[in-house]
Every structure is written in structure tokens, then in C-alpha cells.
Design goal:
This protein is of the alpha+beta class. It is built from 3 helices and 2 strands. It starts with a helix and ends with a helix.
Length: about 80
């Protein structure tokens, strides 16, 4: 997912975040060779929005695809919250 695909993903996530209001809870999990919690789930306040946008902008492509483990991590975060 290098080059244009990751760039498009990042710009799309930042653009879409403007339509999420403060009643929602948002977190961010990335994955490659390992799963990384980029942003723990929390209410989407202006502070969480800034953290989300920063986390999205810092994403990079690389490694293998560890989708299953990433989905499990995201489900655990939701359950814990």
C-alpha cells in the first residue's frame, strides 16, 4: 500500500473525520508485521480529533498484512471501552 494508495487513505480519513461528531468514540489501529494501537478509543472531542489526524498523518506502509490480529485488537479495544 505504498505511494498513492496510502496517501489516498490518509487524506480520506482526515477528510471523513470532519463528519464525525463528539458523541462518537474513535480509535485507530494499524498493522503490518505487528499490530499497533495508534490511538486508543475515546470520545471524539476536538483533542481526540487532533490526535486522530496526527496519528493518521504518521501512518506509513510496510511489512506484511496482519488483518486478523488487527481486527481482534480493535474488537478488544471496543470491548474494553
Amino acid at each position: 500500500m505504498e505511494g498513492k494508495p496510502i496517501t489516498s487513505l490518509k487524506s480520506g480519513l482526515v477528510a471523513a473525520s470532519q463528519y464525525i461528531d463528539e458523541t462518537n468514540y474513535i480509535g485507530l489501529v494499524s498493522y503490518a508485521n505487528k499490530v499497533t494501537v495508534e490511538l486508543p478509543i475515546d470520545k471524539f472531542t476536538s483533542q481526540q480529533r487532533a490526535k486522530f489526524n496526527g496519528a493518521v498523518k504518521s501512518l506509513s506502509a510496510g511489512g506484511s498484512t496482519n488483518t486478523y490480529t488487527a481486527v481482534l485488537q480493535a474488537l478488544k479495544m471496543i470491548d474494553d471501552k
